[in-house]
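Researcher: Next entry in the queue.
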Amino acid sequence: MGKPKTQAPIRLSRVVITLTTLTTGISLENFNRAEANVVQAFQPAESAASASQSLPFGVQPIRPRFCQGDLDTAITSIVNNPSFKTAKWGIVIKPIAEPGSLYQHNPNINLIPASNIKLLTTAAALQFYTENRPEKLASLGNLVTAVNRYSNNPKANLLLRRIGGEKAAMTALANMGVDTSAYRQVDGSGLSRNNRATPSTLVGVLEKMYVRRPNEVNAEHSLLQQIQPKRDLFYNSLAIAGVNGTLRGRFLNTPVQGRLFGKTGTLRGVRSLSGYLQNPDYGTIAFSIVVNQPGQSGQRLTQAIDRILLKTSQVNRC
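Model: Structure for this entry, 318 residues:
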């Protein structure tokens, strides 16, 4: 009879040990799941969606906090890297639907924009045709796409000549509300180093080509039918990150892939990228990043621009 009494506590302790092990295992499993959710938030939307489906019922994926202040710090650290000591940076990152910017650095500095000047060329051409030959507007689709998505220089210069040259382009952009004193255009392609543009000007063009101006909101339906094709042609002519055109090989397997529509710019010592970035919290963000640094590796400049936009894709309202 004494034997069973001495064995009972042993059995009970084994049960306690087993329950403790199971509880610890469950806690660790929950902790690991929480960590996994944080990692998933940095994956492309498709991967994040499939991963969230495997979570237990009622468990929501965690999105890390990355506030505007964090974005300021992150971009400033890139711009102030010692390797860019002699670089001239101009940056504007602005949500389309909001009055303020998320980030600015030398927004009004005049820089060599390289092929980002093509944004002025195509916007001016589409505005010119909307005002003067709206019936021919749709026929510009392939030409504008060749200029913006594939950065075709001869076709960019041809498009500028078609509308009457730089003065005609300036008039068309002025009619859109663009400040024509903040840039200098000497060709349609951006090959000339005599071209100059500020990031604010480039973002201004992007905004004008995306959002209806106040006097157009109440315009007659027939007028809006002419305006909308211009904007669709412009937006759809841009290269898509990780998908096509001059951005086909950039931002692959990142949250930016398929969510950035932009125009690249490349000259010796010059890199630029301007366009639209889709952000879950801020919607469509218009941006322009231009850097001039003679003697610097083009690859290093491009990587820095891409890091800035990857950070921008993560920013959320906090």
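Model: The two ends are 68 Å apart (CA to CA).
Researcher: Noted, moving on.
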